[in-house]
Amino acid sequence: GLLMVLMITTSVIVGVAVNGVAQFVSKLDEHSKQTNERLVKVSNFLRWYGVPQQLQGRVHAYLQQFFENQDREEVKIGLMEWIKKSDVLRADLNLALTGQCLARHRLLGMVPRAALLDICDVCEMVFHPPGEVLQTPGAEVS
Length: 142
Description:
Blueprint: H1 2-48, H2 53-82, H3 87-103, H4 113-122
């Protein structure tokens, strides 16, 4: 009796988990198709207007990275939402994702863990392509 109930419960849990993973993979595949469709539209647009090949390549590389980073941001937001009820797990994950980077800074590396976690909570991911100038000397910072 008890063994049968345990087996049925385990089967249901495994079924739900497998279904969740299958839906996630399906969404990733659909998202990849959407990204490819966008890139094809952009390529057609740029060719139509006679944009030089070298510039087209730069735009294409930028957009590929932009879409990948957009996907990462969406996954992080979802992940943090899914685990928000576990303060310890959320804190550990937030420190692993953002805190490690911040802790490499010579001053932030000396900040206590609790303060670093508070800093991580207010940080947000921002996309900057490789080689982008973030600040020019003498310019005002917004």
